[in-house]
Batch of 4 targets.
Target 1
Amino acid sequence: MDYIELTLSLNNSRGFENDIVSATLAEIGYESFVYTNDGMKAYCAASLFDEKDLKNWKETLPCDIEVDYTFELIKDKNWNEEWEKHYFSPIVIGNDCVIHSSFHTDVPKAKYDILIDPKMSFGTGHHETTSLIIGELIKMNVAGKSLLDMGCGTGVLAILAAMKGAQPITAIDIDEWAYDNTVENIRLNGYPDIEVAKGGAELLSGRKFDIVLANINRNILLNDMKHYAACLSSGGLLLMSGFYKTDMPAIEAEATENGLTFIKFEEKNNWVTTVYEKR
């Protein structure tokens, strides 16, 4: 698949502007982000790119955020090689989980050792939302429980759940790169029983899970939460991330509307993970 690479320079950056830019770009189809010294790179499928949408997006940014951008078409390439050269380094989360790739040689020891070779689905654990959910998952007793990883990216959450004894496990993502990468990564880690499917919430009809993980973005969560709630077993837990603390009232209202009870939230750099229970 070909991608559009959007290179953004942020003037007067005070840190949080990157989060606002990435969150609003996600609303118009950009699915992967890599932070740079003066801004970021953002990626969307070439088939979804519309320069008019990009111009409209820039006009709607808060007036104190100044952004310059360029874009180019990126043909299909060896993304493992690109990650090795430019982006991906091992990451340790909660002192219990290390995520690394096959090209790393100096890897810290941890209870849960996850091997991934990321492609365009950049769910490596570096972003706050992924690390927050991983932190919650490490603390949970998931052994013998059915689990859904919705918007699975690289499949890292599904793999960690398998290491902790969850079964059966289903990983779903609408993106072809994410689907292919998850299939590859579960094979690398020796968990071929994880079911991987390409699609969206329409695949959840008639399914039941004890735990649902959804690390996506605010708008998709609000739109699809009814489907997550419907496929949760009684007493089941829904963990959501991909939004800011200021989005919590909207998330809470939709969760309450769908019969979910708030349990807790964790915050990191204004990003939030919430836990809800279906009673």
Target 2
Amino acid sequence: MRGSSFALRAATASAVVMLVLSLLGSGWGWLRAEAALRQQLDLAIAAEADGFLREYEEFGLRGLALAVEAYTRRRGPLFVALLGPDGRPIAGRIPEALPALRGFANLPGTGERPSLRVLGGNLPGGATLLVAADLTPVDRAASALAWTPPIAGGVAAVLALLLGFIAAGRMEQRLASARTAALGVMEGDLTRRLPLSGRGDEFDRLTTTFNALLGRIEALMQAQRQVTDDIAHDLRSPLSRLRQLLEGALASPRDAARDAEVMERALAELDSVLASFAALLRIARAESGVLREGFSPVDLSTLLTECAEVMEAVAEEAGHSLTREIAPGVSMAGDAGLLRQAVVNLIENAITHGGPRITLRLRPGPVIELEDDGPGIPEAEREAVTRRFHRLDRSRSTPGTGLGLALVAAAAKAHGGTLRLETGAGGKGLRAVLDLRPGN
């Protein structure tokens, strides 16, 4: 296994934590177990002592001595002894001579006597009753309980390390295949995807996200290449015409009137190129999403009314009629300049390529529609015409750059909407639907 493995480090850390916690738990468990066992032992000693005291209260010192002797002959679990005022045994047994005690006391073990827990009580007349218990079983039980956590912790630590090695190996295998695919992408193969295990676990979900990201990058790179090709193809013609125009002017004798005409034509060609670049920049800004940060309330009813008023004269001059059906009080958050440009582009597209009757509509939602009764766009071409520089064959002889509908589509996307191209009323013409409804 190469390098450092996260799974192995996590397993090792878990094993160390388990061992430390088990040792701490062992000490705490030993103290708690010993305290609990000694408490139970004290209760047993006190209960036995109470029994002997009742014998004393009922039968006196002689009756108590007889009871102690009887208990000793039965070899009960406790040591019981009755001492006289001089400290000499009257009855019972103790491993060795003990001093007269009062209350509970712990006596450490000696070579002949184990450690004892002793309860002593003075009786009237100077006699002493001693009840004691061997602490060895208590210590042994407490030790046994104390060793359980370290043993369990050690076993758990070993299992954690073993599982860590197994998990690290499997993770290394999965990451190695992912690394191979990632290196392929870095080397330029954008079709490569990270492999899925089919288990549906967190790694598969993360891999699915990365594959979607790679797919998006591939689509963007293809779009970039397509845009580059389109720019090279569509801008080459006006630049070539401009070069030929200037070369022809240089080769001809100087004539002020003709030179002025050439310069005007050159400026027109340059304006066309600059307009294409400006449109590309607007499309790029719209698609980048940066415009969202500057969104503000936009009165669409007023905006479309102003656009219609401006474009009515343009449409009439081109032989078209522009009517409007604009619902009042429709507004939304957006970029007013971009929305205005999108509406103007739709109207200009209809004036250039559509029929004589053009209708601009605004419905609540908001939804903007522009419909004409022209030849329309074949259904197979409707998606393509929203791409940069794409033009229908019949439109190549008309002025334009092929960026109008691309800008409208980018504006719709920037506002969270869509652009749909549909067949107009009566099965003819074209209806462009700019659907700006939230979540559309």
Target 3
Amino acid sequence: MADRRPALFDMILKLRSATPARIFLPRAGAGLTTRATLDFQLAHAEARDAVEERLDVDTLFDELTARGLTAVCVRSAARDRRSFLLRPDLGRRLDDESRERLKSFAGVYDLAFVIAEGLSARAIARHALPILERTLSSLDRTSWKIAPIVLAEQGRVALGDDIGETLGARLVAVLIGERPGLSSPDSLGVYLTFAPRVGRTDAERNCLSNIRPQGLAYDEATRKLLYLCNEARRRGLTGVELKDEAETLAPEGPHAIDVKNEP
């Protein structure tokens, strides 16, 4: 009988090369090999570090203003990292001082961008500006009135509802660091909500997840976000009733969908 082990080994190598997931880990007796064990411990440490890291708000603020963008810094009601992690509800609403600061920028906006560290400041530091720049460069400022960019410390997704409502925005897009996985400590998410207000549920949002070079690429994420923004404004909703059908459209231009001619 032919030895099938080489073919099986080749198949395992192909499967392992196709995913960062830990599959078919090598074993030494009843346990994993030393290398596999150390790799797991390193990934676990990186995930923990990503959760504990803080967003460098001052540097990000300077980078935004250097690009000619108006930015405003706010905080959630979570006063430190420990309370942010233990009390998710505090990360979903503004503190009183921040709310008063935002009121001075209130108006009538089509779209507000919120950048929040969430559970991975590393994701924001690496990926937020590339996504924001690509999106803003594709939006026609004559038909889209954009609110000042909001930098939120200790913020969770729902903080965007409080911010959008305070600013008077029809749509809010929250760029946030996602919960780190054991192979993705720097994954960025974008959550889009129509008519943001305190009390919105996750079913009323659209989410683009795992934005990073090893996941959802910048240009593809931008294309999907632009599509969702257009459809949300046209149909007056986001969430489970708004499906992401951007991939069914023929790509045009560097970001696949150019919204400058949209109503």
Target 4
Amino acid sequence: MTRTREDIEALIARTALGDRAAFGELYDATSAKLFGVALRILKDRGTAEDALQDIFVKVWHGADRFTPGGASPMSWLIAIARNHAIDRLRRAQAAGGLAPLGEEGLQVAETRPGPEAEAIASGERSRLDGCLAELPEDRAAAVRGAYLDGDTYQVLAERHGVPLNTMRTWLRRSLLKLKDCLTR
């Protein structure tokens, strides 16, 4: 069942009040998407599953910080997931890298979304790809690196041969253009 923005906002508001049933519904409605975000950044299923648990702990404890009517509730949740996954990736890289997926990791039950959710996600992905195509190639690559791959601004600045503040400006302006494009 696809939830509307208002449904997700209501679930977050009820979660902020300590409503465990609402938290369970919120998990059911959003965990596949947030898992996908974590998996895309961490590139390891087991690590992404562990991260998802931590992400929802953060959601439980921070639900009172969400402002209904402001940012999209999914954007807020995805930001939590993305930031947590990037932090986890950086910690793992600093400690010598992520552990390889063991044989037990291959036994994990399938958690992919169903056909309806995949169709919706595919449509959203197509819209985002179309909007990214409207950006200059270097700006689109920087956005993908920062927000999909978890690259730091410094790494991106070095990769593209521009000063750090220029990279920040590129990303900020690119996000504004993407926002405009996605709201058309």
